[in-house]
C-alpha cells in the first residue's frame, strides 16, 4: 500500500493564531519607525544674498555643471562607437562562419576521403624513414622471407642498399614459417638461397596450441610468454660469433614485407612478447629496440612498402591493403590474382566447394558455406574476400612455390660480394643448425599443400623521395577520378542517353587498358612479363561486343 502525502491544510485555530502574530509584528515595526523618525534629505541652502562675489560663484557652479554634462555625453558617444565596432566584428565573423559551413557541406565527403588517404601517404613516408634508420644503424640485417613464397618476399632494392652500403654490414636471409610447406620443398629453397646469402631456417613461436593435444584442465594462457620456437639457437650462435669477430656489441635489424613474421621472430629470440604482433598488415609503425643480451640489440622495423609497378599478385600479398575500407577493389583484384596463380582443383579440395567460373562465384559459394550472409540471404562477398586475403597472408593456409630450375645471380650481386657477406659466419655450424631444425618439425604432406606460381622478386620503396612522388601521383589520380564522377552525374536528356552511355563504355575500356599498361614496368624479368600477359588476358575480354557478352562478367566488370 502506498503512503499518502501529508495534507497542507491547517486548523482554523492555528491559522488565526499565525495571522495575529503577523499583525503584532507589523505594529511593532511601525512603532519603532515612528520613534526613529524619517530622515529627509537636506536642501541646498544656496549662496546667501549678502555674500560677496555671489554672481561669480553662481557662474562657476553653472560652468562646472556644463562640464560634467559634456563629459557624460562624450563617454556615452564613446560607448556607442565601441558597441558599433563590436557589432560589426561579430557580423563579419558570423558571415565567415556561414561561408565556411556552406563550403564544408559541399566538399565534406571529398575532404574526408582526401584527408584519410593523405594520412596514409604520410605514414608511407614515415615507414620509409624508419626503415632507412634501421638499415643504417644495424651491423647485421635480417631479411625475413615467407617459406611459402621466398622469392616473392625478396626485395632487390633492399638487398642492393645493404650490399652496396660499404663497411662491414652483413645480410642474412631468415626462412620463416617453414612448418607451412612440405619438407622437400623447404630443403630445395634452403639449397637455392644459401648460394647467394647465408640462410637460416626458422619457425617462430605462436600462442596457438596444437589441436591434437588434449588437456583435461583449462590452464590460464599467459600472453606475455610464447610457445616453443625452432631455429633461434642457430641464429643466436651466429650473432655471438659475429660479436667475437667484431669485438664490440652489434645491432641486428629485422626487415621484410608485411606479414612475413618480423616481430614474431624477435619475440621468439627474446622469449617474451616484446613486440606487438597481429594478423593486420603494418602493425609495427616505427623502429623499436629490443635487448637480447649485453652484446646484441635487435631493431624491429616497419614493413617495406611495395612498389605499385609490381604485378597484381605481388601487390595483393606484399602491399599494405586497407581491408577496413568499404568496397575496396584492391582486395577483389588481389584474390583474383591469387586464384589465377593456383591450381583450381586444389583450391576446390581445400575449401570443399563445387566448380566455379570466376572469382565472384568462388567468393559467393564460400560465403554461403561459412554463413557470411547479408539481409535477404545475399552472400557477403566483400567481407569474405577480406577474410580470405588475411588467411593467405597469415599462417592459416599451406601453399608452396618451386625454386627456379636455373640459378642466375641478380645484377647487384657478384661472387666477391657473396664471399664478403659469408665472411664472418661459420657456415658449417649454420648447416648443422638448419638440419636440426628441419628434423625437429612436422610438415604438411605435398597433397595437402596448394601448388603456387611465384611472381618473382617484389620491388619495394625504400627512399622517402619515391614515396612522396607516389603520393602526389595518387592525388592526381584521385582528382581526375572525382572530375569524371562529376561529369557522369550530370543529368542529360532522355533522347541522348543511349548514345552517351555507349561512348562512356568505350572510354572506360580505353582507360582500363591504359592503367594496365602503366602497371607494367620495363625493368621486370621475362617471367614477370609472361605473368603480366596472363593477367592482361582478362582485359582482352572487355573488347567483346554486347551481343557476344550479354551476361555480367564479374572477373572484368568491377573497377
Automatic annotation (TrEMBL):
<dbReference type="Pfam" id="PF01926">
    <property type="entry name" value="MMR_HSR1"/>
</dbReference>
<feature type="region of interest" description="Disordered">
    <location>
        <begin position="1"/>
        <end position="119"/>
    </location>
</feature>
<comment type="function">
    <text>May be required to maintain the proliferative capacity of stem cells. Stabilizes MDM2 by preventing its ubiquitination, and hence proteasomal degradation.</text>
</comment>
<keyword id="KW-0547">Nucleotide-binding</keyword>
<protein>
    <recommendedName>
        <fullName>Guanine nucleotide-binding protein-like 3</fullName>
    </recommendedName>
</protein>
<keyword id="KW-0539">Nucleus</keyword>
<keyword id="KW-0597">Phosphoprotein</keyword>
<feature type="compositionally biased region" description="Acidic residues">
    <location>
        <begin position="473"/>
        <end position="504"/>
    </location>
</feature>
<dbReference type="InterPro" id="IPR006073">
    <property type="entry name" value="GTP-bd"/>
</dbReference>
<keyword id="KW-0832">Ubl conjugation</keyword>
<dbReference type="InterPro" id="IPR030378">
    <property type="entry name" value="G_CP_dom"/>
</dbReference>
<keyword id="KW-1017">Isopeptide bond</keyword>
<keyword id="KW-0007">Acetylation</keyword>
<dbReference type="Pfam" id="PF08701">
    <property type="entry name" value="GN3L_Grn1"/>
</dbReference>
<dbReference type="GO" id="GO:0005730">
    <property type="term" value="C:nucleolus"/>
</dbReference>
<dbReference type="InterPro" id="IPR023179">
    <property type="entry name" value="GTP-bd_ortho_bundle_sf"/>
</dbReference>
<feature type="compositionally biased region" description="Basic residues">
    <location>
        <begin position="1"/>
        <end position="42"/>
    </location>
</feature>
<feature type="compositionally biased region" description="Basic and acidic residues">
    <location>
        <begin position="53"/>
        <end position="83"/>
    </location>
</feature>
<dbReference type="GO" id="GO:0005525">
    <property type="term" value="F:GTP binding"/>
</dbReference>
<keyword id="KW-0175">Coiled coil</keyword>
<feature type="region of interest" description="Disordered">
    <location>
        <begin position="473"/>
        <end position="559"/>
    </location>
</feature>
<feature type="compositionally biased region" description="Basic and acidic residues">
    <location>
        <begin position="524"/>
        <end position="534"/>
    </location>
</feature>
<keyword id="KW-0342">GTP-binding</keyword>
<feature type="domain" description="CP-type G">
    <location>
        <begin position="128"/>
        <end position="307"/>
    </location>
</feature>
<dbReference type="InterPro" id="IPR050755">
    <property type="entry name" value="TRAFAC_YlqF/YawG_RiboMat"/>
</dbReference>
<dbReference type="InterPro" id="IPR014813">
    <property type="entry name" value="Gnl3_N_dom"/>
</dbReference>
<feature type="compositionally biased region" description="Basic and acidic residues">
    <location>
        <begin position="91"/>
        <end position="109"/>
    </location>
</feature>
<dbReference type="InterPro" id="IPR027417">
    <property type="entry name" value="P-loop_NTPase"/>
</dbReference>
